[in-house]
């Protein structure tokens, strides 16, 4: 059983089926991308790193675009990526069940699965591809604000629901792209970031056009800066690094930054860097923000683009007893070969595996490694009908 029908769950299913292992995905295909990402969003990853992996490399983004007669876009729109994922899912046929999983618990040597409609199932193995939705991070200094005044980018708030004046907290892709979209919608928006100046990805395009030299410096996945990009491309190699060395590499590769194509779209947006909010409260129907330099800002709504923090206990479908059996690393599951955990038969793929295998697992490009690694492990360790 695979929980989650996003890129990682769909790719894992395709590879397991290709290896002769029965696999069933549960969940609404591409739900997070469809419901929790803003209309008008463009993928940060380049085209070549936006394909969901399948064992024959036939269900590519380009194959989908060819099938629908679409022109190739340099930056992939969110809507196209969602439809691509659903097209990918359609090729898997009955292997995807749109019912959600409500609870997973141990049942002898396997697992008992309760679905949202009350159906109960048993499975020898469970692969969790639940995504990052439950892990969104909101700074504590804003905890007393009413829910109507705050949102997180990963909640997918519509541009029209945020009011006429919005402060966006953060300096990553989600924060900056939401700010650009809000400005283009006609909203009075201001970005507030703690870092001294904003960082941009893709500002050194000439380094990607040097042929063999570029291929030596950057992997096709384009995750991380010069040099680190090549290291990140080998998760099984990075797996053997001690955490004290691996964590800085991971954090450097995915530090907050925006795509270079956002720069012209943000030229007229107010951006305050090098400062943070020390006080936030609702006054007279407004949100009053006090910065660490004493400046006051009044807005209608506060939007967090503050990323996420992995904590698998926030997966509500995992029973507390099951989570207690999982050896953890600061909220991450301590995964080993095949993304296996200390609970036999329980596997985690995607961003939850990035602490051990590196930041490639935070991106769609990581579906190739993830699915191949998982299927190799399953072929070696399970009967052919082992994943239900």
Structural class: alpha/beta
Approximately how much helix is present in the residues?
A: 25-40%
Radius of gyration: 21 Å
- How do the strands line up in the largest sheet? 3-2-1-7-20
Query: Sheet bearing the most strands, described?
Result: 5 strands, parallel
Regions with pLDDT < 50 over 5+ consecutive residues? none
Strand tally: 20
Can you tell me the CATH topology of the largest domain?
Answer: FAD/NAD(P)-binding domain
Shape: globular
The number of helices is 12
How big a fraction of the residues is strand? 15-25%
The H-level CATH homologous superfamily of the largest domain, spelled out, is FAD/NAD(P)-binding domain
Q: Please name the CATH architecture of the largest domain.
A: 3-Layer(bba) Sandwich
Text of the CATH class of the largest domain: Alpha Beta
Mean pLDDT: 92
CA-to-CA gap between the ends? 5 Å
Number of domains: 2
Kindly describe this structure:
This protein is an alpha/beta fold and 388 residues long. The chain folds into two domains: 2-135 and 308-381, 3-Layer(bba) Sandwich (FAD/NAD(P)-binding domain), CATH 3.50.50.60; 140-199 and 256-304, FAD/NAD(P)-binding domain (3-Layer(bba) Sandwich), CATH 3.50.50. It is 26% helix and 20% strand. The chain contains twelve helices and 20 strands. It has helices at residues 7-18, 31-35, 61-68, 78-91, 173-185, 212-217, 228-232, 235-238, 243-253, 320-324, 354-357, 367-381; strands at residues 2-3, 25-26, 96-97, 101-107, 110-115, 120-123, 126-128, 150-152, 165-169, 188-193, 200-201, 258-259, 270-273, 277-283, 286-291, 296-299, 301-304, 328-329, 332-333, 346-348. It has a five-stranded parallel β-sheet with strand order 3-2-1-7-20. A hairpin with a 2-residue loop joins β4 and β5. It is globular. The chain starts with a strand and ends in a 7-residue tail after the last helix. 41% of the residues are buried. The model has no long low-confidence stretch (mean pLDDT 92).
